């Protein structure tokens, strides 16, 4: 406490006006300039460390350089009796914390405060200054309703306090997440602050979202019974819906809040200016942004009034007007000037067809092609013109996957049954061009060259058909080249270099003139080029546009988020978006949630297990009563293992490590599970054991400099099969659980991949998958390996599972069909002709997405969660116009 009348340099203390975690605040008189000021005296221990004191002075000087009406003006700094102090403008009013303790601000007022706060943050961020401790206590509302941000540049000087604070103290408690570098306040810290990672201006955007949430609901976004529980909530949980506490919050405003509170910085607003613009668009109170118009084609308006003949007449007139308007908008904007407005269309499939997938826009932007099941359950290729209300299926395209357009927008390439096909968009007979090893994307240039994916690189073939030639070669860190896309010159192309480990996935660029390629940047996604100079790809579920020079083959500047929650199609990083040459973008949104469902052998849905959740894999115990599942966290990056009681549908968590745990495999007696986790310092996936009762701690079973994924545990309990991704191609390895316990390779080749191996019930055979033929097929080999192996699948297959008596083998095709083959074992093992049991919308992941009960009569399958409001295709005309306003 400093007594009134004390002189601090030229400032005379008049009275104490407050205190907080950062020190005491006094009213003082600046005798030189004859004005009242505020002086914050900070803890004396700041001056005990010369480096820390110097940093304080630098931070205070930086804050003093900020000249913005929404930031507290800093006039001077000094030291009094060993305690540093900051001199700033004297404010009349109250903090946002004090306001929220008294009343719930009106929604309109909260938006106004938030806009001012965003402008203040934007000004600071433009100067390279990050606050790191945005919270209601550091936001001041003056008597004339002006928002002022306090303590800019000083937050990281705070000291940690003792453990054991009560929940009521959590709002202002500081926590050190990385000693001497990152500070924050429980309840308002960003996930990266909680983890002790490096932070940038986007940490303030997360804290901003938490403050805006609290203004709109008068409750904290993240709140637990203790500091630790609150920090865990920030990392793993989502706040309750705002409308549950404030029904006046419009959906558009709620979306702004959720966009700020994304767990991953890349998925948030990328600047405070973006937030301010979004909020200013809502400030009229309508809850609808003026930046875009959403037209749902063919959706009649609902009404509580009775339907009279006159209303049907008016409805028909309205539908015709909507059709005419949509056609006019399309005609204008597909040849619009760059300054035009983006227009969004929500397109549906035809009646009776399933939701669309693998959406692709014609280069001229006039039509979209997509995959969907017709009412009879056949997967077909469909075409829809943007000026039409209906889509047409192309006959003869059953089983089509990964469609792509010809450059003249008249033909479409696609994959089916191990071949590459082309078909006219107007309809007609499909033409087979060549055999293909997999269906992971194609691209077609103006010279009639088609690129497609193969396990050893990209391949090329004439659009008229013929012999394919290798176009690229994978390097030692990769497993395949996928999703090619030609650049404007028709010679160069971009694609995904797929790899066993995340850090080795890259977007690459190649040329038809050489098999050599070069890395552009790291990503795990398909990629597309969009004029006048962008690469579109998906990062953390969001579609982003990365500026790119197609002549210099160089990325430039920062990426911008274009759309959120892009849906995935099957596996191998196929995200559902497409772009034309003239500014038409199409995509479909989705969710990482899925549902576990029991099916019988005919595909009849028997029952669901529990509620939809973020399931990634499923494994049944030997008695069929319990399931071990890998479950993703909210942002889909990490996972933990949970146990499900199938009779009750209840679940309990088994692993709690912050790293990713998944791929559980049961021991034969049901007492233990083996799983993979990337807990090692080098982030490699290693094998761990845990008891199914969770009574013990996780035990490291096998550590290596490779990535290992368990697939099967022998019935005698003595051996575990796992897939190893290392310096060579993927191979099948055996881990003995007795003797020297040294792992050894069973099936390993430098030329192709092998994995997903499972012991037969009697332990005499192993079923596994391999792409040695150029595509994934299921094989059976004796154990220990000797003699010839048996090829079970005939048209592609993966992820085999045995019936409990060993007389039937099940597997999946890449389009989600469940297949069955009879197995006869005697002096020689034999297989019957595989039969399709049923088609399912299985959710493919890196692990097993299905399991079978012991007698093979029922299948527990992880399928995408069904929603009441099915997501349509979203088509955006003149999509680049929105980028200019961000």
Task: Walk me through the structure.
By secondary structure, the chain is mostly beta strands. The chain is 14% helix and 38% strand. The protein contains 10 helices and 62 strands. A hairpin with a 5-residue loop joins strand 26 (480-486) and strand 27 (492-498). Helix 7 packs antiparallel against helix 8.
Radius of gyration: 31 Å
Number of strands: 62
Strand content: 35-45%
Q: Which residue ranges are poorly predicted, with pLDDT under 50 across at least 5 consecutive positions?
A: 155-183, 284-315, 317-339
The CATH superfamily of the largest domain is TolB, C-terminal domain
Secondary structure blueprint with pairings:
Blueprint: E1 7-8, E2 11-20, E3 23-30, E4 35-41, H1 50-64, E5 74-80, E6 83-89, E7 93-95, H2 96-102, H3 107-126, E8 139-142, E9 147-149, E10 174-178, E11 182-185, H4 191-194, H5 202-217, H6 227-236, H7 251-260, H8 272-282, E12 293-296, H9 309-333, E13 343-347, E14 357-361, E15 367-373, E16 379-385, E17 392-394, E18 401-405, E19 411-416, E20 419-424, E21 431-435, E22 442-444, E23 449-454, E24 457-462, E25 469-470, E26 480-486, E27 492-498, E28 506-511, E29 514-522, E30 527-530, E31 534-539, E32 542-549, E33 554-555, E34 560-563, E35 577-579, E36 584-587, E37 594-600, E38 605-613, E39 615-620, E40 626-632, E41 639-645, E42 650-653, E43 661-666, E44 672-677, E45 686-691, E46 699-702, E47 707-713, E48 719-725, E49 731-736, E50 744-747, E51 754-759, E52 765-770, E53 777-782, E54 790-791, E55 798-802, E56 808-812, E57 817-824, E58 830-831, E59 835-839, E60 850-852, E61 858-864, E62 873-877, H10 880-883
Parallel strand pairs: 12-13
Antiparallel strand pairs: 1-2, 2-3, 3-4, 4-6, 5-6, 7-8, 8-9, 10-11, 13-62, 14-15, 15-16, 16-17, 18-19, 19-20, 20-21, 22-23, 23-24, 24-25, 26-27, 27-28, 28-29, 30-31, 31-32, 32-33, 32-34, 35-36, 36-62, 37-38, 37-61, 39-40, 40-41, 41-42, 43-44, 44-45, 45-46, 47-48, 48-49, 49-50, 51-52, 52-53, ...
Helix pairs in contact: 3-5, 3-8, 5-7, 7-8
């Amino acid at each position: 406490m400093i007594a009134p009348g004390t002189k601090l340099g030229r400032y005379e203390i008049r009275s104490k006006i407050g205190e907080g975690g950062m020190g005491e605040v006094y009213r003082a008189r600046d005798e030189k300039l004859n004005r009242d000021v505020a002086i914050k005296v900070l803890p004396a221990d700041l001056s005990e460390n010369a480096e820390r004191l110097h940093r304080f002075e630098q931070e205070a000087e930086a804050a003093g350089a900020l000249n913005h009406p929404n930031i507290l003006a800093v006039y001077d700094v000094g030291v009094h009796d060993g305690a540093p102090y900051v001199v700033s403008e004297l404010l009349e009013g109250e903090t946002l914390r004090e306001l929220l303790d008294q009343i719930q601000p009106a929604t309109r007022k909260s938006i106004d405060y938030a806009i001012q706060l965003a402008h203040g943050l934007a000004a600071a961020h433009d100067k390279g200054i990050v606050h790191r401790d945005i919270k209601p206590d550091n936001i001041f509302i003056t008597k004339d309703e002006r928002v002022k941000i306090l303590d800019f540049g000083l937050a990281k000087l705070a000291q940690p306090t003792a453990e054991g604070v009560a929940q009521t103290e959590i709002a202002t408690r500081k926590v050190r997440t990385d000693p001497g570098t990152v500070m924050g306040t429980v309840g308002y810290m960003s996930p990266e602050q909680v983890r002790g990672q490096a932070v940038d201006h986007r940490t303030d955007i997360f804290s901003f979202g938490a403050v805006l949430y609290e203004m709109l609901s008068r409750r904290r976004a993240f709140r637990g019974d203790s500091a630790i529980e609150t920090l865990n909530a920030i990392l793993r949980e989502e706040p309750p819906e705002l409308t549950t506490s404030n029904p006046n919050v419009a959906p558009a405003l709620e979306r702004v809040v959720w966009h700020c509170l994304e767990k991953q910085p890349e998925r948030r607003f990328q600047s405070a200016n973006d937030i301010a613009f979004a909020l200013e668009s809502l400030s009229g109170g309508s809850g609808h942004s003026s930046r875009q118009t959403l037209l749902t084609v063919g959706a009649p308006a609902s009404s509580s009034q009775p339907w009279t003949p006159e209303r049907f007449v008016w409805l028909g007139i309205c539908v015709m007007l909507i059709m005419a308007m949509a056609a006019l908008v399309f005609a204008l904007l597909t040849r619009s000037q760059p300054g035009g407005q983006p227009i969004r269309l929500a397109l549906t499939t035809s009646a009776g067809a399933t939701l669309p997938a693998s959406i692709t826009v014609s280069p001229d932007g006039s039509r979209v092609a997509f995959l969907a099941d017709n009412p009879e359950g056949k997967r077909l290729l469909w075409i829809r013109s943007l000026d039409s209300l209906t889509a047409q299926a192309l006959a003869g395209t059953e089983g089509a996957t990964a469609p792509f357009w010809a450059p003249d927008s008249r033909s479409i390439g696609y994959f089916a049954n191990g071949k590459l096909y082309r078909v006219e968009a107007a309809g007609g007979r499909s033409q087979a061009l060549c055999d293909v090893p997999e269906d992971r994307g194609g691209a077609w240039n103006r010279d009639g060259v088609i690129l497609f994916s193969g396990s050893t690189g990209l391949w090329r073939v004439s659009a008229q058909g013929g012999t394919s030639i290798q176009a690229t070669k994978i390097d030692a860190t990769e497993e395949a080249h996928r999703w090619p896309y030609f650049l404007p010159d028709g010679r160069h192309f971009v694609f995904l270099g797929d790899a066993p480990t995340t850090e080795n996935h890259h977007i690459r660029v190649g040329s038809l003139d050489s098999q050599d390629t070069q890395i552009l940047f790291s990503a795990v996604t398909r990629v597309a080029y969009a004029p006048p100079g962008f690469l579109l790809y998906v990062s953390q579920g969001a579609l982003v546009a990365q500026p790119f020079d197609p002549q210099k083959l160089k990325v430039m500047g920062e990426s911008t988020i274009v759309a959120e929650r892009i849906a995935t199609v099957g596996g191998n990083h196929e995200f559902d978006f497409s772009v034309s040459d003239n500014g038409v973008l199409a995509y479909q949104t989705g969710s990482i949630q899925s549902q576990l469902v029991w099916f019988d052998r005919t595909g009849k849905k028997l029952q669901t297990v529990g509620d939809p959740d973020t399931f990634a894999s499923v494994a049944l115990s030997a008695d069929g009563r319990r399931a071990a599942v890998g479950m993703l966290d909210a942002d889909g990056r990490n996972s933990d293992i949970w146990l499900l009681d199938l009779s009750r549908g209840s679940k309990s968590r088994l692993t709690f490590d912050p790293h990713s745990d998944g791929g559980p495999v049961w021991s034969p007696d049901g007492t233990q599970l083996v799983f993979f986790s990337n807990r090692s310092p080098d982030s490699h996936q290693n094998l761990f054991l845990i008891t199914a009762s969770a009574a013990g701690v996780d035990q490291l079973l096998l550590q290596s400099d490779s990535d290992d994924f368990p697939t099967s545990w022998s019935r005698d309990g003595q051996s575990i099969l796992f897939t190893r991704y290392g310096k060579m191609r993927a191979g099948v390895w055996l881990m003995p659980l007795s003797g020297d316990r040294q792992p050894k390779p069973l099936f390993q080749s430098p030329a192709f991949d092998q994995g997903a191996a499972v012991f037969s019930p009697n332990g005499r055979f192993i079923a596994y998958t391999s792409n040695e033929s150029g595509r994934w097929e299921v094989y059976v080999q004796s154990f220990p390996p000797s003699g010839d192996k048996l090829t079970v699948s005939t048209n592609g297959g993966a992820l085999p599972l045995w019936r409990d008596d060993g007389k039937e083998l099940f597997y999946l095709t890449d389009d989600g069909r469940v297949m069955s083959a009879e197995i006869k074992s005697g002096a020689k093992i034999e297989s019957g002709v595989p039969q399709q049991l049923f088609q399912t919308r299985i959710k493919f992941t890196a692990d097993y997405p299905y399991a079978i009960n012991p007698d093979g009569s029922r299948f527990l399958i992880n399928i995408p969660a069904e929603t009441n409001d099915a997501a349509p295709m979203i088509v955006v005309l003149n999509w680049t116009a929105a980028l200019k306003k961000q």
